[in-house]
Amino acid sequence: VQLQASGGGLVRPGGSLRLSCAASGSIYSINDMGWYRQAPGKQRELVASITSGGSTNYEDSVKGRFTIFRDNAKNTVYLQANSLKPEDTAVYYCNADRITYLSGSFYYTHEFWGQGAQVTVSS
Questions:
Q1: Residue 23, SS3?
Q2: Cα–Cα distance between 105 and 96 in angstroms, integer?
Q3: Whole-number Cα distances in Å, 52 to 67, 72, 88, 106
Q4: pLDDT digit string, tens, across residues 87-110
Q5: What's the pLDDT at 120?
């Protein structure tokens, strides 16, 4: 099982981008998924999360600007980021807190992280 993130890049203040993160492998189920970010010199923080049922949670500074959503059929989570600010600059990581998957003849449940996507907001 792996999580593959995509969609990062350089955007001007006020601009938008969409991050995607697809889980692949012999997946049986995925629980909560989320996006974290880590700016230089700062700790990794939760940006947004979404349950398998679609309930969402956002960090205060992104409320009203970012939207997290998922396509359970594609095992993919998205982060639509609008009205971007320079302080949103960070490496963004996707996370799945519990993926149940088949390996050989057995099912396992683990947490997985994506590889990170750089988002730079600058004029």
A1: strand
A2: 22
A3: 15, 8, 26, 23
A4: 999 999 999 999 999 999 999 999
A5: 98
